[in-house]
Write a structure and sequence with these properties.
The complex is a heterodimer of chains A (about 120) and B (about 130).
Chain A (H helix, E strand, L loop, with lengths): L2 H8 L3 E4 L9 E4 L3 H7 L4 E5 L5 H9 L3 E4 L7 H10 L3 E3 L4 H14 L4
Parallel strand pairs in A: 2-3, 3-4, 4-5
Antiparallel strand pairs in A: 1-5
Chain B lengths: L7 H12 L4 H21 L2 E9 L2 E9 L6 H4 L9 H4 L8 H8 L2 E7 L3 E9 L6
Antiparallel strand pairs in B: 1-2, 2-4, 3-4
The chains are: A alpha/beta (about 120), B alpha+beta (about 130).
């Protein structure tokens, strides 16, 4: 199973918007302060957040993140979905909270020697 | 101002910097400076402009706004200090990290502000080539 398939299965992700092919996941970041994400997330990171407004796509795109996971069953705003399509950023939702989603993702990335 | 469109000006600056082949780290720092300055204008000011001058050895970002101004600039540069309203904070902004982020990513930073008039911020980011 490839990396994205593992992540999608283990984190119970639902794709809300995004391109046909996903970029390479080089790491992950979890945070809900946008300035923190902007300053400290690295290109290729998969970002876990509780936010669902359109500005998260702008941040992800500016930092070249590999995707966004909105936690705790929150749904993205319609403008967020539109922006994600336009910017080609994979946008997912998960029923897991930030902590559980991060834990699952840490395990997968660590097993795959990515982190 | 349309808050949800915050970041569009910075996206244009990023594209221009990539087009002329600035160093990856220069682009990263310029993007952080531009985005934080853009959001400050969107959150606090009545209106403003974000102008970028690109030179082979540096990027200059100038954010000029008409707005409430900053009464105490050294206080505003402290991490954690914020005057953003609650609804902005709920969206993950206004944590008092904007100006400190700008300062950290700039090689030179000048801020002039007059209360009830506006703020001018000028940041210079040196385009250091790898290994320099």
């Amino acid at each position: 199973m490839n990396l994205w398939d593992q992540i999608i299965q283990q984190l119970e992700l639902t794709l809300q918007a995004g391109p046909l092919t996903f970029g390479q996941v080089r790491g992950a970041f979890c945070g809900d302060l946008l300035s923190d994400v902007l300053a400290n997330a690295a290109p290729g990171d998969l970002w876990i957040t509780i936010h669902h407004h359109r500005n998260i796509v702008a941040v992800a795109s500016l930092v070249n993140l590999s995707g966004i996971i909105i936690s705790n069953n929150r749904l993205p705003d319609p403008e967020t979905v539109e922006a994600a399509i336009k910017e080609g950023i994979p946008l997912f939702t998960t029923p897991l909270n930030n902590f559980m989603a991060s834990g699952e993702l840490f395990k997968i990335l660590s097993d795959n020697s990515i982190i | 101002m349309d808050f949800t469109r915050g970041g569009e000006a910075t996206a244009k600056i990023k594209k221009a910097l990539q087009l002329v082949g600035m160093e990856v780290d220069t682009i990263r720092r310029a993007v952080i400076v531009a985005y934080e300055a853009e959001l400050n204008i969107v959150i606090h000011a009545k209106h403003g402009s974000l102008v970028t001058h690109i030179h082979p050895n540096r990027v200059e970002i100038e954010a000029v706004d008409e707005g409430p101004g900053i009464p105490d600039i050294s206080l505003a540069l402290q991490e954690g200090y914020s005057t953003a309203p609650p609804h902005i904070r709920e969206m993950g902004f206004g944590a008092g990290m904007g100006l400190p982020n700008i300062q950290r990513c700039s090689d030179e930073l000048h801020i002039d502000s007059e209360v009830d008039s506006g703020t001018t911020l000028k940041a210079i980011i040196i385009n250091k080539s790898r290994g320099e």
